[in-house]
Specification:
- Helix content is 59%, strand content 0%.
- The protein is built from three helices and no strands.
- The N and C termini lie far apart (52 Å).
Length: 75
């Protein structure tokens, strides 16, 4: 019985360690989706300043390279 509970606890801990939550960043007139809220905010700021989708994508990618370097880069 103890071995079963230990295995269940370990399974629960493993499952919980892989659950991720994402914060919501919302705006009117545009959508930017990234893995980090600061990168999303950079893309939205590019749109707010009159940029197009490509400007927002570049701003988000450059910010992602700084805040999550393993997730984005040249090559």
């Amino acid at each position: 019985m103890t071995a079963t509970r230990t295995a269940e606890t370990a399974d629960h801990a493993l499952t919980a360690s892989f659950q991720q939550t994402r914060s919501r960043v919302m705006a009117r007139g545009g959508i930017v989706a990234t893995a980090h809220p600061l990168a999303t905010a950079a893309g939205l700021e590019a749109l707010r300043k009159g940029g197009n989708a490509m400007d927002a994508a570049i701003a988000a990618a450059l910010t992602t390279a700084v805040v999550l370097p393993a997730m984005c880069g040249l090559g």
